[in-house]
Amino acid sequence: MPIHEKSLIRPENLHSQENLTIDGVDVSGHWSTFIEPRVVTDYNENLEDEIAALPGGEYIHRCWQCGSCTNACPVNAINPDFNPRFWIYLVRLGMEDELLRDKDIIWQCVSCNKCTYVCPRDVAPEGVMKATAHWLELKGHRPKSPSILFDEVFSEQVFATGKIEEGRIIRDFFKRTGQPLMQDWLVEMVKRLLSGLPLKLMMTMGLATLFRPRTRGWGPARAAIEEYVHEKEAEQRRALGLDGSAGDIE
Amino acid sequence: MNGKYKKVAYYPGCALEGSAHAYSRSTKAVGRKLGLDLVEVENWNCCGAMEVKNIDPKLQTYLSSRVMSIAANEMKFDVVMAPCNGCYHNLKKAEYDLANDPDSVAVVERLSTKAGHETYQAGDIETIHALDWIKHSIGEAGLRERVKNSLAGLKVANYYGCMYTRPRHIFPEKDQGGDSESTLEPHYMDDLLAAAGAEIVAFPLKTACCGGAHTLSDSDTSTKLVINILRAAELNGAEVIATECPTCHSGLEMHQIRAEKRFDIKTSVKIVYFTQLLGLALGLSPRKVGLHENVSDSLPLFKEKGLA
Ligand code: SF4
Ligand code: SF4
């Protein structure tokens, strides 16, 4: 019998024999692979509640493991280890150690909402992926992902001025992630863009990077948003049993 | 014909003032040509794009609600049109949440009061996409009458991306049969461009994801997703991919180049906003629809086809 989702089993627990005879019966071939049973004792019984306490994770308890999300997921099509259905299973069982094996890819969800579209139980798996990625970082299991760093650069600009300016986002993001701005493909893109542009438009675009676009009278909105963000951060840290002090998104 | 869409509030959003200027330019030019009025939302703010929700989803709801509040309460409009899928999606999502989730209502009330503007109430305004705007005001018949320069012979694949149809629950008007849009196989862009004479090719990746959310933060994933889209279009014979979202559009343009530079995979299909194609069909010049502002250089193709 082929083993379904074989990649999910720890390799050291999989045993295959080329030729195998049991009680005088030759079971070589299809029946030659065994999974070694193991005892799991290190459950984190709070794991599901912690994920559910973060934005997006609210409906994880509804999952009935149909696998439609994984089946619809374009990131899974690129990397079979990217498996929303499996992670939801692990979280609900509290198998934190197993989940941590995939800690460096969970943030790669591109928020396409294919999973949310097909989920028969309204779990909103996209939200669960974001909540899980967020949980990993809040708990210190991995540094902030490039994705959340981008979200932060972007959101800080919106909170500060009401609007964003794309050039500044790109520059700030590359700076914060320590990457050179002069990526060959970005340079090529700018070259192709400029070749078609008249001088006047180029000047307008240049000016937009000097004079930041902003929403007039944004000050009170900014203050209200920042106050709310700090409250939420403190709330989340309490839910995860962290120190309870407000973190900062900077 | 729907008179309601003849004059609507226009929410361009941040991308249309930057990298997607061509989309804004061609949308406005097509509107003028069709006798449809756009009045820009005064002193608008960013809707939160795809990023703010990852800091906190209710902040995205607030940001989007402020835009709707200005259009509805201060400018007294019944309809706001957003050509960007991200803006359109976020306004729709805010509308849904404010109609269904008391917690979201409470956060929006609190932030609106502190920020000093009227709180948006669900139902105060109707949010539509640029596709709805043209489809339900002028329609295919109206377009056919006005076409000066038929797109006949131009093979087009229509790409809608993620946020125009997903998640389904925030688009209650879709999947209602009749003239409504389908979330599984959207067709409004197909309908409009076919009316302008284009040859629409079969395109199974209409609502595939371009990886737009991670275009810079996980570029390899985005490039791989974009390669699938470009190749599928070419395999179906498309010369042009028509887009209706600035994030998809720049994602396809950027990663077409990146696929070439990093993976040595070259594709030649051109990437054009659907409003640019409609504009050309209505007799506007390439400059008027901002073809020179695209990265993907489609001018030679349109010259060859006698469209420019
Ligand atoms: S589609 Fe929904 S119910 Fe099915 S496995 Fe995924 S989250 Fe669970
Ligand atoms: S939203 Fe994320 S998890 Fe869901 S299908 Fe898309 S990439 Fe996969």
Task: List strands and helices in order, with pairings.
The complex is a heterodimer of chains A (250) and B (308).
Chain A: E1 14-16, E2 21-22, E3 25-26, E4 33-35, H1 47-52, H2 68-72, H3 74-78, H4 84-93, H5 96-100, H6 114-118, H7 125-138, H8 146-161, H9 166-176, H10 184-196, H11 199-210, H12 219-239
Antiparallel strand pairs in A: 1-4, 2-3
Chain B: E1 7-10, H1 13-16, H2 21-34, E2 37-40, H3 52-55, H4 57-74, E3 79-82, H5 85-100, H6 102-115, E4 126-129, H7 130-137, H8 139-146, E5 155-159, H9 188-195, E6 199-200, H10 219-235, E7 240-243, H11 246-263, E8 270-273, H12 274-281, H13 299-304
Helix pairs in contact in B: 2-12, 4-5, 4-6, 5-6, 7-9, 8-9, 10-11
Bound molecules: iron/sulfur cluster (2 copies).
One iron/sulfur cluster (SF4) binds next to helix 2, helix 3, helix 6 and helix 7 of chain A.
List keywords for this structure.
heterodimer, A: 250 residues, mainly alpha, Fumarate Reductase Iron-sulfur Protein, Chain B, domain 2, 2 domains, two-stranded antiparallel ribbon, 4 strands, 49% helix, globular, disordered C terminus, B: 308 residues, alpha/beta, Glutathione S-transferase Yfyf (Class Pi), Chain A, domain 2, Rossmann fold, four-stranded parallel beta sheet, 13 helices, 8 strands, 10% strand, binds iron/sulfur cluster
Total beta strand runs of chain B = 8
**CATH fold call of the largest domain in chain A:** Fumarate Reductase Iron-sulfur Protein, Chain B, domain 2
CATH architecture annotation name of the largest domain in chain B: 3-Layer(aba) Sandwich
- CATH superfamily grouping of the largest domain in chain A: Alpha-helical ferredoxin
The shape of chain B, in one word, is: globular
Helices and strands of chain B, in order, run as: EHHEHHEHHEHHEHEHEHEHH
How is the quaternary structure best described? Answer: heterodimer
Q: Please give the order of strands in the largest beta sheet of chain A.
A: 1-4
Low-pLDDT segments of chain B:
none
Number of helices of chain A: 12
Number of strands of chain A: 4
Biggest sheet character of chain A = 2 strands, antiparallel
The CATH C-level name of the largest domain in chain B is Alpha Beta
Q: What is the string of SSEs of chain A from the N terminus onward? A: EEEEHHHHHHHHHHHH
The number of domains of chain A: 2
Structural class of chain A: mainly alpha
* Most extensive chain-chain interface: A-B, 67 and 65 residues
| Structural classification of chain B | alpha/beta
Question: What would you report as the Rg of chain B, rounded to the nearest angstrom?
Answer: 19 Å
N-to-C terminal Cα separation of chain B, in Å?
30 Å
Shape of chain A: globular
